[in-house]
Give the backbone structure.
Amino acid sequence: MDNIQEEASNTSYSLFAKLLHWGFVILFVYGVIKQVGSINQLEDNALLRFEVLFAGVFLLLLAVRFAYVKKTQTSSLPQETPKIQKLAAKLVHYGMYASLVGIAGSGLLIGFLYGQGFQSGLLIESIIGVHEFLVSLIYWLIGVHVVAALYHRFLKDGVWSSMVPLFKEQNKES
Ligand code: HEM
Ligand code: HEM
């Protein structure tokens, strides 16, 4: 995503990039709603298999998204955006990708260990701790990301409309 933040060009994201962005918002919300409420629920073999499949597909699609966006898209931050703000956006975007990989990856590890008979104990509990920590971290990052997006909507600098199909700005952005 280096080119995203450094060659800021205020262009719009492609339809595919928007589909991936909003598709992941839906997938993530679904993952949170369907979350495993307690480790004991994994006794249900069908649930364990579904969770592992979900996390595997999630990771694969995330890799496709990251590769596509990094290769083909540029940030819509205006050229004159202060360097520190470009860096902050980059950190939050990378942070969200890393957290998503970490959440699905630790989930897969929990599923694998559970299947191997590590149904309690320090090992699986530590990984659940990491899983939960990353969930809290991404909530914060998403919060910052959405506040920043709203701030850009208020500035009417085209960043909001480059990704969000609702409440589009009337000026600057077509
Ligand atoms: C993208 C995939 C996943 C998402 C979005 C997700 C999301 C979550 C969320 C939101 C929580 C609650 C965290 C909290 O309350 O602090 C959680 C907890 C947990 N998840 Fe996941 N998860 C995913 C994959 C998995 C997988 C594949 C497994 C294992 C098969 C798993 C096992 C667990 C367990 C054991 C807990 C802790 C439950 C407890 O409170 O004891 N997760 N997950
Ligand atoms: C699960 C929640 C979300 C995640 C994980 C997320 C993640 C990302 C990421 C990684 C990017 C960089 C482009 C890319 O790689 O696709 C991005 C761009 C963007 N997102 Fe989100 N997003 C989420 C929700 C939202 C919401 C709810 C809004 C608006 C209300 C929003 C508005 C934007 C905007 C305006 C951009 C363009 C920013 C720029 O070009 O610098 N996002 N998002």
About this structure: Confidence is low (pLDDT under 50) at residues 1-9. The longest helix spans residues 122-155.
